[in-house]
Structure formats: C-alpha cells, structure tokens
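Lecture 7 notes. Example A: sequence first, then its structure tokens.
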Amino acid sequence: MRAALVGYSSSEEEQEQEGGRRGGGAQGPPRASAGRPRLPLPAGLPGDPEPEEAISDDSSRHGGRVRGFPHERGNWATHVYLPYRVQEEFLELLELLVSRARTYVSSLAAMEEFHLSLSQCVVLRYHWIDPFVRSLKERLASFDRFFCVADQVKVYTNQNKTRTFIGLEVSAGHFQLLELVSEVDRVLEEFDLPTFYKDPSFHISLAWCVGDLSGRLEGQCLRELQDIVDGFEDSALLLRIQWEQIHCKSGNKYFSFPLSAPGWV
C-alpha cells in the first residue's frame, strides 16, 4: 500500500510555508466568480507588513524541514482548517502510537497541535487577507456543527516527499467535510489560488519525520498501530469528534468562524 500524497499544513508547515500545490509569488487582484462582483483594490494601505520580522531558510534550524516556496515580502502563508482540541485520553493514545511507531522510525516526532485541513497551504498577498476572510465568513455562515469519526491509521507524505506523517483518517462524516471544502474552494478560486484535492483523504496528523520513510511505517507497523487504536478503551467515543468552528491562519493572524448549533437561529 503506497502512502497517500498530501499537501500537508500544520502550524509548523505554515511557518515554513510548506505544502502541496501552491500559488505563485506575485499575486494580482482576485477574480470575480459568477454572480459576484470583482473585489475593489484596497485604498490607503501601507506597505506589506511581515508576519515575522526575520525569516530563515536554513533547514537545520527547523528540524530539517524544507521551505516549499521562497519567502517574499508581502506573501502570507494561509491555511483553512478545523481545529481539534484534544482530551487527556487522546494524548494517552497518541503516546502509545508514537512509541510503537518509533520502533520502526526512531526520528518520529509527535505533533503539538491537531487539526483537519480544509485547504492546502497557499500564498496570499497581505492586501487580500481581509477580503479573503470576509468571503470565507459569507460562504461558511450557513453551516451547522457536525460529527465525524477519525479512527483509521494511515501513512502520508507531502507532495515533494520531504516529510512523512502518521494520521487518523476520517471514516464517517466525509460528506459534510466535502461540502465545507466546496465552499472554501470557491473562495480560493476568487483569488486565483489552488483549490483542495479532488479526492481528499481527510485526516488528523499525529506524528511526522523528515524524508520519505513511508516504506518503514506501512505494512506491519501500520497494522500494529491500527490494533492499538481498535483496542484502546473507549476509542469509538474518543475518536467521534464534534466540529464547532473553522479557523483560518494567515501568517500570524488567526480568524475563527463558529459553526451554528443545529436548531438555533
């Protein structure tokens, strides 16, 4: 079984601006989709502020991670995702999984934050952050909270195969996630940005390592990890996740879009 390709975006990936398919460096005004007026160019804005004062491309300073596209002034790495607030029991399961996986790949590191991606990590010009967020808010306003189940262990690599990940793939709730991605994609298209994958493997990444080490983690290791998940006490309840909000991170800016409670006006 081959590792799935994924333009992965974690908090670390956003800082390194690493992921799958991405937009180019210089970016013109966003195009208008059918039935929507073209967004006007913001007036009276200062120069493009930087999300970070100093940017280093030295991979040795970032755990061996390699920047997927060059840093340019005014380009902000942007990512739309569902944040997952973990419980203590989840961290116990994570420790069991990472400990077992390290017997096959000793360099594995556990993730520190957890989420489910609704977009690739894309490049957004500073001037378009506010209109991008406004469009997201409009598109996502009608969505209610929902549940999904993420209980299938899977191995992933990013598109340029510089990193390998172990994740929990969604086995229920796929339809609702596709609906969200469809709306996020429409916003991305307005700004001439790459949309999400056509047949996405929705997942929550648990651990990562530098390089393509998927061959070591698949097969026997993957089976052992799945056995740990299946045998973990109350795993069926623990891995049934209710999503209550969507986040967008652009550089060092965070935006939240609450999902409505069903039946509420």
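Example B, a different protein, same format:
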Amino acid sequence: MPAQPSNFKRFVEVGRVVLLKSGPHEGRIAVIAEIIDHNRALIDGPTTGVPRQAFPYRHMTLTPFVLSSLPRGAGTGVIRKHLEKDGTVEKWNKSSWAQKREAIAKRRSLNDFERFCVMLAKKARRDQVRKTLAKASA
C-alpha cells in the first residue's frame, strides 16, 4: 500500500517561526531553537524582543516561515543573523495574517468617537456605491 502524502504542512522543527498566543510577549514572533520534549520548545526572538526561554507548544502557533539552515541549539546571535539575512520579520509584517492581526488590534483600540467616525465613513461610502449602481442600471 503506497504511503499517503501528509495533510499537515507545518511541522515543529528547529528554525520554525512561531507566533506566541499567550504570556507577556503575546502577538510577537520567535524561532524554535531547540525541541525540549513533546510539550515544550526552546524559543528565541532576538529581533522581536522575545527572550530565549522554554515555551509550551499549546501557547504558540506555527507560521509558514522556516529558517532552513539553522543548526540545533543555535545561539541568539546566530538566530539574529539568519532572521536578518532571510528578512523573515519583514516577510511576517507583509503577510496577510500579520496585517489582519494589526487591523483587529487597531479596531479594538478605537474610542467611542473614532468608532462613530468610522460608522459615518461607511455610511458615506455605502451611499456613494448605491448612487453609482443606480446610475449604472438606469
């Protein structure tokens, strides 16, 4: 019986870029430097302000980015060089995932008046679209 290809595309591996889901560094990205056991990995984020620490898998999300040539147990300096060489942080910031997170955070930080201004802008846009469609169909 031939082996079926895996449905999984992202694996826990040394060099995998992860997004932290909880803790004081929530929302930042880091790199897996070493796999400790089946529950934790040693992560490091020298360019994003995440200190080198053991972190549980259940509090991180695997991203599609990988530092492929990173050796096991690499130090902070080596990880920093690989991140800067590959431009991984810039790739992350340009990804739709990061931009969506940023938009949600910005929307959550709006005060009452700013939400009101957004509502008025949406109404104005909706009215403009309605008028243009009415003109086009008539």
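Note on Example B: The mean pLDDT is 94. Residues 63 and 97 are 9 Å apart (CA to CA).
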